Each structure stands twice: as C-alpha cells, then as structure tokens.
Write a sequence for this structure.
C-alpha cells in the first residue's frame, strides 16, 4: 500500500522546523490530533475520525482552529474606495457591522484570492484571506490602495480565529457571550465578549451550517477554546480538523482557492457572477476583462457530480462524455452526508446542459484508467434544513 | 496521534502492509501506521478469489477521505478469500487493522521451509525502524 501522506512527505510535520504554530497548537497535540503542514502552518488535520467530526458538525457542532487565516486591516477615509478599486464587490455599499464574500482579481479577471470582508466601521475594514495567499493579498491591497487615503496593515498576528459551526453552535455560544445571538444576522459581525475575552464575533463560516467565527486576541485563544469545549460537551460538540472542513465545504458547494478558484479562473467560470459588481461606480482592477467575459459565451461551467460507483473522483481526474474528455474534477471526496462520492468539476457548458437533461450512461469520470459512471446534480450537494 | 502498533508475530512490507503466514496461507492487511496516515477508509478494492498476484505488483486500492492508495501483493500466489465484512464496513480497517480489518488471503505459490519467509518481508523490528523515520503525525 502506498499513500502520498506516507511516501511523499516522510517526517513528522511537528518535527519540521519553520512551520508556524497557532496559540492552540499545544491543545491540538494534547487532544491527539494528527497535525499537518497547511500553507506553512502546523494545523490539525483530524483529531480522530474525520467522518465523525464531519457528522458532528451536521448534527450538533464542531470547533475549529482557523488561526492560520490571514487578517488584513484597511483603514482611513479612503478605505471603502480602496477596496472598491481593489476587489470586485461593492464594499462601499456595505453597512458597518456587515460582511461580504468577495474576490480579488488580476487585470485579466483571474481570481487571486477569495475573501470575506467585514466592515467594522465607516473607515475600518477587516479582510480575511486564505493563509497561503495572505502575503500576496497584503501586497496587492497595499499597491492598489497606494493612491487613495487608506492604510493597509497585516493584522494576522493580532488574531486567533476560532469557529464554532453546526446547529447547536448558538445554544453553546449563547451563555458564554454578552451578545444577543438572536440579533446577530448571517454575515454580520459585532464586538463582543466571549468567555471574558474581547472579540469580534461574526456569524460566518465555511461548512454550510449555522455558526460563528470568533476573532480573539491570541492570548485569549486558549480561554475561548476551553470554555466553548466545556460548554459544548453536553451538546455533542467535538473539535474538528481541516479534513472535515474540506468535506463540509465541498458538500455545501463552496469553492476552495487552488481547486475551484485560481488565477486562470474568472468568477464567472466558478458560478460566482454575483460577486462581480459591474454596476458599481468607478474603475476596479479586472473590470474591463470581466465586463468582456460577462458578455462572452462561457468556456466552462462548474458543476456537481455524484459518483455512481464507490471509487472517488479526485482533483485533476478527467470528466468524460461518451468516453471523450470534456473537463476535469477540481475537488472530490466521499460524502459522509450523501453516502456517495461527490465532486465539483469544470466541464464544457454544452455537455453540462445535455447532462442536466439526462445523461444516463454517458457521463463518467476517468478514475485511474477506468471510466466510472457519474451523474450531474445542481450545487450545492447539501443545504441545511431551514 | 497515538503511537502505532506493530505486532511482533507479523511480517511487514515497506508499502505498509502486514502478512500473517499460517502454513501455505498468507493473510494480508494494512498496518496501524497506514490506517492512521490514511484516515477513515471508505472503500477497499481487493483482488478477487482466484486471482493470481505477484509480489510487489499492485492488486487493489484503498480509498480514504483524502486519498487513494494502491494495494500491493506482498507475496506470490493465488487469492483464496476476501474479507466479506469490509465492503459493508470499511471502517474495520481503521478500528482493527490487524484483526477484523484483514483484507485478503493468498495461497503461497511456493511453500518455503518453516523458518524461511517469502523474500522482501520485514520483521516487526525492521518495520518499526522504517516507520520511525516517517511518523505521519505529531507524537
């Protein structure tokens, strides 16, 4: 038996010098987590069974350490204008206290990162970037804000980020915070206290469940984590690692940078048309290319596939239509909730249309040399019960 | 991560499989180290009974949440049996890799002497030394 985890990365990540640790790394190690190198950070991949962690988030709640994520502050009288120029979204229209999912594009419309932007005050924004992209996003924002009256600062070291996600998240967090969670809207953030710590409390996440993300001072991370763990024990809360996070977001049809998104992908390819606000005033980086792209016939479409055998379509595998390659899988995994392999893939729009109308026996994924049947389904694979 | 178990009485391959030889029959599975590194096993494709397998050649695959791995035949011979429980409950490979999680059995092509092992297999001590250099997780 061979496995990339075994044969390609010998050596304990914990023993590799240079990996960054979060304020909670010691807690993860104490819980027996399998730690892995993720974008230069030593992060928990799983604590026990990643399937059990996934199911706990769907049925009760999971606790995640996301302190590797990058945080950038954009402040000043020109902060909103700077973000409106730098990003595709209409951030100037965002009310203080609200948050928005958006992307930062290159001149050619390619996606350089996907971001959540929190407007904390009229002249203060917090931009959350993927860990691997945070230095690049910092450089891009600094460059794009240079001619405007705004300051971009790297605040990554000022925050630990803890997420509690799942249908029991509000019940667990409620008694530990001064915030009235019933008043905390989806994609909103509030300054609050959690377990005595002064935090930014946001109702955001990447699992398809209700939940909260807590930006806490690093020195308070252990107190917040420990209090949530204790309060959640009776609710079925478990610590959950990056493996569960990946299958949760895939079921929820959420894009992952490096898989569904990248510099060769425009938001339109990824079905994220709504993130490109061509209607906003003023120029923004990528506008001309994106406006042209909005008018052009799409070259490919992001679709959902369910595998009809038990073999799992993985990143990079070819999608076949009548045996002919028509695209490639971007993410795939065995879905704990559906009990079948699921995948997202870019395929030709014509084939996507045909397959949506019934492609029984014609659509397949080339899984290591064998065509395994698949069917096309609308995204997301999973939507939480209302 | 807990320290992986390496039972003294079994034989091992560098591909993280174990072999238990009883007379002319070799029982085969993957090691505790391997199941820990893979995470939750969701599907195993083992060679069918009657199939001839050749030591060192791929003969099946193990799917886990994050990856898929080839199974290699650790010995030459003919497959006599496949664990009938694994298809319904692949998690047995995680929960009991050396027991209920066995994968398949092979009738050895050449019966060696009592003390003579098929070539290329490692002792528990040799396998432990191999994995000490590549422990998949933190402690």
């Amino acid at each position: 038996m061979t496995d990339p985890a075994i044969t390609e990365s010998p050596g304990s990540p914990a023993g590799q010098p240079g990996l960054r640790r979060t304020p909670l790394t010691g807690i993860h190690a104490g819980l027996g987590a399998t730690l892995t190198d993720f974008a230069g950070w030593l992060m928990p991949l799983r604590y026990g069974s990643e399937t059990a962690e996934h199911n706990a988030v769907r049925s009760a709640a999971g606790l995640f350490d996301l302190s590797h994520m990058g945080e950038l502050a954009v402040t000043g009288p020109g902060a909103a204008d700077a973000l409106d120029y730098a990003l595709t979204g209409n951030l100037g229209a965002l009310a203080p206290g609200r948050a928005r999912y958006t992307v930062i594009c290159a001149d050619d419309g390619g996606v350089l990162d996907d971001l959540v932007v929190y407007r904390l005050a009229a002249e203060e924004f917090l931009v959350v970037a993927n860990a691997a992209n945070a230095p690049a996003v910092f450089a891009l924002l600094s460059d794009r804000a240079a001619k405007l009256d705004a300051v971009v600062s790297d605040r990554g070291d000022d925050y630990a980020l803890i997420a509690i996600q799942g249908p029991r998240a509000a019940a667990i967090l409620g008694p530990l915070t001064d915030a009235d969670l019933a008043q905390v809207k989806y994609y909103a953030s509030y300054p609050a206290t959690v377990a005595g710590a002064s935090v930014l409390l946001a109702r955001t996440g990447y699992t398809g469940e209700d939940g909260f993300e807590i930006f806490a001072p690093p020195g308070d991370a252990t107190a917040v984590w420990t209090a949530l763990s204790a309060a959640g024990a009776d609710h079925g809360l478990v610590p959950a690692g990056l493996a569960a996070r990946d299958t949760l977001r895939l079921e929820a049809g959420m894009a992952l940078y490096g898989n569904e998104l990248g510099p060769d992908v425009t938001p339109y390819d990824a079905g994220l048309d709504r993130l490109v606000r061509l209607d906003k005033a003023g120029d923004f980086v990528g506008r001309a290319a994106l406006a042209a792209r909005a008018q052009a016939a799409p070259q490919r479409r992001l679709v959902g596939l369910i595998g009809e055998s038990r073999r799992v379509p993985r990143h990079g595998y070819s999608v076949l239509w009548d045996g002919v390659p028509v695209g490639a899988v971007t993410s795939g995994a065995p879905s704990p909730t559906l009990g079948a392999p699921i995948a997202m893939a870019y395929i030709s729009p014509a084939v996507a249309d045909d397959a949506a109308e019934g492609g029984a026996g014609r659509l397949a994924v080339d899984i290591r040399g064998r065509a395994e049947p698949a069917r096309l389904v609308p995204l997301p694979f999973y939507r939480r019960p209302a | 991560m807990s320290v992986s178990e390496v039972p003294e009485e079994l034989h091992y391959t560098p591909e993280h499989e174990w072999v238990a030889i009883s007379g002319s029959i070799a029982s085969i599975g993957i090691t505790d180290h391997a199941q820990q590194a893979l995470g939750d096993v969701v599907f195993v494709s083992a060679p069918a009974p009657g199939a001839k397998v050749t030591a060192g050649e791929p003969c099946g695959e193990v799917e886990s949440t994050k990856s898929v791995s080839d199974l290699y035949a650790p010995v030459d011979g003919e497959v006599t049996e496949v664990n009938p429980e694994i298809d319904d409950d692949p998690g047995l490979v995680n929960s009991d890799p050396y027991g209920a999680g066995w994968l398949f059995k092979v009738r050895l092509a050449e019966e060696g002497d009592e003390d003579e092992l098929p070539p290329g297999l490692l002792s528990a001590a040799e396998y432990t030394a191999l994995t000490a250099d590549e422990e998949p997780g933190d402690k």
Q: What stands out?
A: The mean pLDDT of chain B is 90. Chain B has three helices and nine strands.
